[in-house]
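<instruction>
Derive structure tokens from the sequence
<data>
Labelled lines for chain and fold:
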Amino acid sequence: MDLGISGKQALVCAASKGLGKACALHLAREGAHVTITARTLRDLEAAASDIQAQTGMKVTIAPGDMATEDGRNAALAACPQPDILVNNCGGPPPGDFRQLTREDWISAFDANMMSAIELMKATVDGMMARKFGRIINITSASVKNPIGMLPLSNGIRAGLTGFVAGLSRDTVRHNVTINCLLPGAHDTDRLRSAYVGRAKSAGIDIEELIARDSAGSPAGRVGTADEFGAACAFFCSQYAGFITGQNLVLDGGAYRGML
């Protein structure tokens, strides 16, 4: 299937590893000109080199923290008129809400909500003028299935979801769609790092612990970054122009709600 995005300009945030990198890789495979961001230059360069090797497409890098104005300006300088924007940011830390400070909330707000809103603000009008735009916000399955020890993620990402629900209805008539992808557990460096301490304490290897934890999932496994990236590419395609304001959960059926 030709997704119809060859030659489009794509800006993918937090794309040096994991789900962000997988999204960038699949967009590049479809012929999009991809610009990727991340805070660590070495990781960003390695990701760009790998994507280029796999796809033959040149990848532009824009080092910086999207939670900051300087980081966003650097990204937009590297890709000033994106047709595709993939907002992505590592989740805020877990904890008991009673222990969280105002500064904790503001930091999570800046990283997980305002960074996406500011990038949408800077790009959505240009997309509408060109009559094509695809905006994807990578959030979390916790938006639909809140996790008790993730109050920052539950609250801030739900706020972004509400914002997108309103804006997406104003842009779709211009062929600009805005959707959210809500990942559950996927086999990424971040997931594996979270398992290191538990595996060591249990005296088993990480693979066994991941398999044990995922056995109770309807899918019986964790997801792959490649699966996630493919879903992202479809939502960015010419065939997704009638899908907007949606929240797609990618968690192997772990969320058991109907809506």
User: Anything to note?
Assistant: Strands lie at 9-12, 33-38, 59-63, 84-87, 133-138, 176-183, 186-187, 223-224, 247-250. Residues 102-130 form the longest helix (29 residues). The chain is about 45% helix and 15% strand. The CA atoms of residues 113 and 159 lie 7 Å apart.
